[in-house]
Amino acid sequence: MLGLKLETDPRWANIAESNLEEILTDHAWCEQKAATNAIKLISLNSEHVDLVTELLVIAQEELEHFQMVHNIIKERGYTLGPERKDSYVNELFKFIIKGGNKHQQLVDRLLFSAMIEARSCERFKLLSTTIKDQELAKFYHELMVSEAGHYTTFISFARQYGKGVDVEKRWEDFLLFEGELIKSYGKNETIHG
Predict the structure, then answer these.
(1) Within a 10 A sphere around the Cβ of 164, how many other Cβ atoms?
(2) What is the C-alpha separation between 30 and 11, in angstroms, rounded?
(3) In the predicted structure, residue 186 carries a pLDDT above the cut 90
(4) What DSSP line would sit under the chain, residue for residue?
(5) What would the mean pLDDT of 74-92 be, rounded to a whole number?
(6) 103-143 pLDDT tens trace
(7) Cβ proximity of 95 and 174 under 8 Å
(8) Which positions are tagged coiled coil (predicted)?
(9) pTM of the full predicted structure?
(10) What is the DSSP secondary structure assignment for residue 96, as one 8-state letter?
C-alpha cells in the first residue's frame, strides 16, 4: 500500500530497542513536528475548507501522540531531552519544488507529508512486530494504524488539489528519491535515523 522502494533493515528495531529513552525522545519530537507541519499547511492553504478541517484533526492527533509518548517517557523514569534535528526529514524537504504555482507547492508539501507518514508507518510496524517490550509493541501498532490514515489523507488531498500537476508522476519521484535517501539511514536509535 505504501509503495516504499526500500524496507527498513529489521536490525534497526534492535538498535532502537537498545536505547528506549533516546528512541522515545526522538519519537516525541517527531510527533511535535508533525503537528507543526499540519498547522503550517493550514496557514498556507486556508482557503480550502475541507483541507483545513482534516488537517486540524491530524494536528490534534499528532499533539495527542506527542503527549502519549511524553507520558511513556515519564512513566519509565526518563526525561524528555532537547528537540532533535531530523536529518532524514530535512533531506526530504530539499526535494520539494521551490517556486512554481500554488497547486504545485501544495501538492509537493502534501506528498512530502505523505512520505514521512509512510516511512513512520513502516517503522512503527517494524517496532510493533519485533521489539520484546509488549507495552511498546502494542503502542507502536496503534500508531502504525494512525500514521497509515494520515498518509492516506495527505495522498488523497494531493490528488484532489493537484490541478495541472501529474500527481502520480510526482509521487513516484518522491518514492524513488526517498528510496535512495533511506539507504543512508537505519543505523541510529531515532525514528527516521
Answers:
(1) 8
(2) 21
(3) no
(4) ----SSPPPTHHHHHHHTTHHHHHHHHHHHHHHHHHHHHHHHHH-TT-HHHHHHHHHHHHHHHHHHHHHHHHHHHTT----SPPP-HHHHHHHTTSPPSS-HHHHHHHHHHHHHHHHHHHHHHHHHHHHH-S-HHHHHHHHHHHHHHHHHHHHHHHHHHHT-TTS-HHHHHHHHHHHHHHHGGG-SSSSSS--
(5) 93
(6) 899 999 999 999 999 999 999 999 999 999 999 999 999 99
(7) yes
(8) none
(9) 0.95
(10) S
| Mean pLDDT for the chain overall | 94
Residues 6+ apart with CB under 8 A from 142: none
What is the percentage of the chain residues whose pLDDT exceeds 90? 85
Name every residue whose Cβ is closer than 8 Å to that of residue 31 and which is 6 or more positions away in sequence: 62, 63, 65, 66, 69
Residue with cell 499547511: 41
